[in-house]
């Protein structure tokens, strides 16, 4: 089973016509929350004005295509922002996740010039520093505590490795930076998976990010039946039950080939629980 974070009430900020109004609703906690402990902005400042224009733009444009990044303003008050939704979501599911993120960020990271909220369905990030196209290979995990039996472990791990390597090779070369698929693990049981990068990454950096996560899985969670492995720029998820919102894009029978590697895979740091931390500070293993 998974340990899921609890839900609670948050002050939600509506964003019609770039205005901010306040009501209460219930929302899911983020998997990862990062707030700057270095730079703050003051109320009624130019940075706050720019941020209040940025977030509605991210919401409206990100909902249309599942990804959007842009900047508003000029130095020293420029704000860079990015949103991304999981590639198998409907437009409405994407919009709901992004909406919750854009309104909760004010409560979770008040007056911070850098913030990141990562949910199961989407990510929101903004900063006064340029972060587009910069790959993050610091892995984290939320994993299924169920284990594959010892007799099945070798076959399971081989099938999982082949599936993830093929999906990551395909996703890295696609404009969507997303792929999903499944493969037979044993009779009546299939492994279902998705891989995804934020679309600001190059093909090579997306591949590098995904391969670093795949390399982390046996270090973190060897023989676990499923898990969600992520950085701020890419994600890998697999389970032995259906979880995708739409049918997988590919079905893979057993195969042998693995995609070529273009960069050395870094030695990942073990971190195996949902994490909340400050941008600019080190993440501790929990």
Automatic annotation (TrEMBL):
Question: What Pfam families does the database record attribute to this sequence?
Answer: Stress-antifung
Q: Has UniProt tagged this entry with the keyword Signal?
A: yes
Subcellular location, in the record's words? Secreted
Which stretches of sequence are listed as region Disordered? Answer: 257-286
Query: What is the protein's major site of localization?
Result: secreted
Keywords of this protein's UniProt record, alphabetized?
A: Repeat, Secreted, Signal
Q: Output the superkingdom of the source species.
A: Eukaryota
Q: Where is the signal peptide?
A: 1-27
Concerning InterPro entries, the annotation shows: CRR_secretory_protein (IPR050581), GNK2 (IPR002902), GNK2_sf (IPR038408)
Q: Return the Polar residues bias intervals.
A: 270-286
Q: Which GO terms describe its cellular component?
A: extracellular region
Gnk2-homologous domain residues are 29-131, 136-243
Is this entry keyworded DNA-binding? no
**PANTHER family (alphabetical):** CYSTEINE-RICH REPEAT SECRETORY PROTEIN 38, CYSTEINE-RICH REPEAT SECRETORY PROTEIN 38-RELATED
> Belongs to which family?
Belongs to the cysteine-rich repeat secretory protein family.
* Protein's name in the database: Gnk2-homologous domain-containing protein
> Which species expresses this protein natively?
Aquilegia coerulea (Rocky mountain columbine)
């Amino acid at each position: 089973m998974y340990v899921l974070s609890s839900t609670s009430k948050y002050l939600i900020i509506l964003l019609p016509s770039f205005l901010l109004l306040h009501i209460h609703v219930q929302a899911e906690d983020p998997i990862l929350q990062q707030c700057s402990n270095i730079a703050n902005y003051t109320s009624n400042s130019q940075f706050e004005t720019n941020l209040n224009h940025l977030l509605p733009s991210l919401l409206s444009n990100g909902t249309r295509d599942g990804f959007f990044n842009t900047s508003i303003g000029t130095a020293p008050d420029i704000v860079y922002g990015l949103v991304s939704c999981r590639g198998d979501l409907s437009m409405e599911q994407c919009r709901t996740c992004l909406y919750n993120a854009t309104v909760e960020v004010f409560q979770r990271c008040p007056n911070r010039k850098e913030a990141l909220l990562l949910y199961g369905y989407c990510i929101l990030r903004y900063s006064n520093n340029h972060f587009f196209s910069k790959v993050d290979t610091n892995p984290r995990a939320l994993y299924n505590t169920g284990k594959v039996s010892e007799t099945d472990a070798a076959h399971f791990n081989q099938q999982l490795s082949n599936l993830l390597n093929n999906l990551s090779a395909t996703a890295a070369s696609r404009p969507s930076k997303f792929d999903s698929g499944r493969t037979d693990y044993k009779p009546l049981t299939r492994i279902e998976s998705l891989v995804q990068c934020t679309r600001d990454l190059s093909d090579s950096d997306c591949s590098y990010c995904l391969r670093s996560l795949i390399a982390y899985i046996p270090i973190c969670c060897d023989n676990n039946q499923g898990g969600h492995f992520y950085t701020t720029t890419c994600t890998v998820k697999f389970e032995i039950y259906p979880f995708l919102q739409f049918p997988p894009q590919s079905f893979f029978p057993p195969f042998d080939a693995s995609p070529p590697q273009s960069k050395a895979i870094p030695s990942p740091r073990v971190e195996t629980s949902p994490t909340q931390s400050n941008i600019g500070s080190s993440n501790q293993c929990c």
